[in-house]
């Protein structure tokens, strides 16, 4: 029994070690999940997102553009 739990834990920690690769991908952006938000952001900590009263969500650039968002003025 104990061995089973240990291997499950190992698989989980292996899986989570791959996450940083996804984060470093430039095709993902952050946006405020509000209809008033017009911008998307490259970083979650952007000052343009600090006013967000809604959930901050991570989406692809394509998805952000599809929602009518443009790149935040604080970046670039
Ligand atoms: Zn921004």
Spell out the blueprint of helices and strands.
Elements: H1 2-16, H2 19-23, E1 28-32, E2 39-41, E3 56-60, H3 61-66, E4 70-71
Bound molecules: zinc ion.
Task: Name some characteristics of this structure.
about 80 residues, binds zinc ion, elongated, 4-stranded mixed β-sheet, alpha+beta
Task: Summarize the structure in words.
The protein has a four-stranded mixed β-sheet with strand order 3-1-2-4. It has a domain at 24-76. The chain has helices spanning 2-16, 19-23, 61-66, and strands at residues 28-32, 39-41, 56-60, 70-71. Strand 1 (28-32) and strand 2 (39-41) form a beta hairpin. It has 76 residues and is of the alpha+beta class. The structure holds zinc ion (ZN). Residues 41, 46, 48-49, 72, 74-75 line the site of zinc ion (ZN).
Put simply, the count of helices is 3
Percent helix: 25-40%
Radius of gyration: 17 Å
Strand content: 15-25%
Order of helices and strands: HHEEEHE
Instruction: Using the alpha-carbon principal axes, give the shape.
Output: elongated
Return the average pLDDT rounded to an integer.
Answer: 82
What's the assembly state of these chains? single chain
Instruction: Return residue spans where pLDDT drops below 50 for at least 5 consecutive residues.
Output: 21-25
């Amino acid at each position: 029994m104990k061995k089973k739990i240990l291997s499950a834990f190992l698989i989980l920690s292996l899986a989570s070690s791959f996450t940083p690769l996804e984060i470093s991908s430039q095709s993902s952006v952050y946006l405020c999940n509000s209809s008033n938000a017009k911008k998307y952001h490259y970083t979650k900590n952007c000052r343009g997102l600090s006013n967000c009263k809604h959930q901050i969500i991570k989406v692809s650039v394509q998805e952000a553009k599809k929602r009518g968002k443009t790149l935040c003025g604080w970046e670039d």
